[in-house]
From TrEMBL:
InterPro entries: D-isomer_DH_NAD-bd (IPR006140), NAD(P)-bd_dom_sf (IPR036291). This is D-2-hydroxyacid dehydrogenase. It comes from Candidatus Gemmiger avistercoris. SUPFAM superfamilies: Formate/glycerate dehydrogenase catalytic domain-like, NAD(P)-binding Rossmann-fold domains. Keywords: NAD, Oxidoreductase. The lineage of its organism: Bacteria, Bacillati, Bacillota, Clostridia, Eubacteriales. CDD domains: 2-Hacid_dh_1.
Length: 338
């Protein structure tokens, strides 16, 4: 392959930049960030690794490859943003550790009323909450979405003694950390048995408002909902109403609809709702950025040698799936380290 221009828009260290250069020594590399990328740099590139502004990238009509640093690069998959023949790959495999640990932390906090005791601490209130807390061990966890993030959480829940059921678009053989993995058509049948419903879904027409008032009503009374995928999968008003009525115990939300959640929304004031501003992934855990660099370098070597890229996304389904060439890097253990 002739020399190509590679633009990397990530806040990398000198060592991480060198890993990218060594992956394709014959290529020209430039390094910038999402915030500082210029139109000149974007138009220079044959391949872009990192989420430069959509309004800039859509002006490069010869772009051969876009590697997102997100698992779900929704804005870049919209018609007209990238050239029709531009390869699109994502960062599946990079975020499972960080986000699944966030999910685990939030679940434990809600199960043990830790957020309520934090509120009492701020008031210097030494008073027990007179009600039983919950146990992680023996709980039934329904993981709706079994990609890298959902599977990473499922493994951790299982390790702590929970029973785990997975939900995918299509049923699949169950790994050793799941009781079963069912297709999406079985979602409603599984909801009444789940103490925790954990969502890690992409933003697609099929997932929009998947958890509306009717589906929330099918959940087990007192269940906890966790959402780290897309806020659009949950009707925020219906969720608040279900928690206020006691039908659901609470929720942990790193994503909301709309995002950011308006200050007047009732979810903000509910004691058993924990909200963070879409930060469970990103780069707050340094290993996440290392994982992303590993994926970038792995695919850049393949790009330079004319091989099929891994983590290729379907613009139709917005998944890395069997219909696409290459393979999916599904967990932190598979992310290339060198």
């Amino acid at each position: 392959m002739t020399e190509k221009h590679i633009l990397v828009a990530l806040p990398l260290s000198a060592g991480q930049r060198e890993r990218i250069r060594q992956a394709a020594p014959a290529f020209a590399c430039r390094f910038t960030t999402e915030e500082t990328a210029t139109l000149e740099e974007v138009l220079w590139a044959d391949a872009i690794l990192g989420n430069v502004p959509v309004e800039l990238i859509r002006q490069n009509r010869r772009l051969a490859w876009f590697q997102s640093n997100f698992a779900g690069p929704d804005p870049y998959l919209e018609p007209g943003v990238l050239p029709p023949d531009c390869l699109v790959t994502n960062a599946t495999g990079a975020y499972g550790l960080a986000i699944s640990e966030w999910m685990l932390g939030m679940w434990l906090a809600l199960a043990k009323d830790l957020q309520l005791y934090r509120d009492r601490q701020r008031r210097q209130c030494w008073q027990a909450i007179e009600r039983p807390v919950r146990s992680v061990a023996g709980s039934r966890v329904l993981c709706v979405g079994m990609g890298d993030i959902g599977a990473s959480f499922a493994r951790r829940a299982h390790a702590l003694g929970a029973e785990v059921v997975g939900v995918r678009r299509h049923a699949a053989p169950a790994p050793d950390y799941c009781l079963r993995v069912v297709g999406a058509e079985e979602l409603d049948a599984e909801l009444p048995g789940a103490d925790v419903v954990a969502l890690s879904l992409p933003g697609t027409p099929e997932t929009a408002r998947l958890f509306d008032a009717a589906r929330l009503a099918r959940c087990k009374p007192g269940a906890i909902l966790i959402n780290v995928g897309r806020g659009t999968a949950v009707d925020s008003d219906a969720l608040a109403a279900a928690i206020e009525s006691g039908a659901l115990y609470g929720a942990a939300l790193d994503v909301t609809d709309p995002e950011p959640l308006p200050p007047e929304h009732p979810l903000w004031r509910l004691d058993t709702v924990l909200i963070t501003p879409h930060i469970s992934g990103r780069f707050s855990l340094p290993r996440t950025l290392e994982n992303i660099v590993g994926i970038f370098a792995h695919n850049l070597r393949r790009f330079a040698s004319g091989q099929t890229l891994d983590n290729q996304m379907s613009r139709r389904t917005r998944y890395v799936s069997a219909e696409m060439p290459g393979r999916r890097l599904t967990c932190e253990a598979e992310v290339p380290a060198q």
